[in-house]
Amino acid sequence: MNLIGINETIDFAIKKWPTDDELRQTIARTHELGGLAIINHIPWSNTTEYGYELPRMQNHPSREQLVDMGLDGIEIANGGTLDTISLKFVQDHNLLLMTGADVHYPDSNAFSWTILNTNGNRTMDNIMAQLKARRTSFLFDPTGTQPLAYPPESSLYFKTAPPTLLGQLFQMFWIDQTGMYSFSPTGGSCHPEYLTIRWQLIG
């Protein structure tokens, strides 16, 4: 979840498994601070995590439940995915429409942009006013931008590569399945960890 326009850490928002009540309190506190609460990449969150037959984000609230909690808007495009279900839901419920580039690396493509008319006034106050009025549109390009920068290989990599690659060689004998990383300050994963020994390679 994105909490936009606030300058305070909300404790409820940084837990690995916040309850519905804690999500509701997080959104309420965001509103008290003059901010907006946007839910991110619902398709990505509900996609099955490899090896678990479970969603990446388990027990994810439905769109209807999130609106009941006071949610302001939904990210309808993330990376190369256009979430048409959320787009229609946003339109039907008069929610704030947002997009996310999800650009993690210098050579990552951008696929979507949130559009709003600032009339030349690009101050934070005016941008927040436009967002709160829910006057946004979007541009989505499934091809994405052409990367213009490719990071060079670090000289440090060549110093550490031999032991690292040797360790990876031995790792072919087992699979350490940890599931989706939780992205919470406490770290850890959203799924139980399990170890599989590849006995066929050993024997």
Plain-language structure description:
The protein has two domains: 2-140, TIM Barrel; 155-202, no CATH class. It has seven helices and eleven strands. It has helices at 20-32, 42-46, 63-68, 84-93, 124-132, 155-170, 199-202, and strands at residues 2-4, 36-39, 48-49, 54-55, 73-78, 81-82, 96-100, 112-115, 137-140, 174-177, 194-197. The strands form four sheets. Strands 1, 2, 5, 6 and 7 form a five-stranded mixed beta sheet that branches. A two-stranded antiparallel ribbon has the order 3-4. It has a two-stranded antiparallel ribbon with strand order 8-9. A hairpin with a 2-residue loop joins strand 5 and strand 6 (81-82). The chain is globular, with a radius of gyration of 21 Å. The termini are far apart.
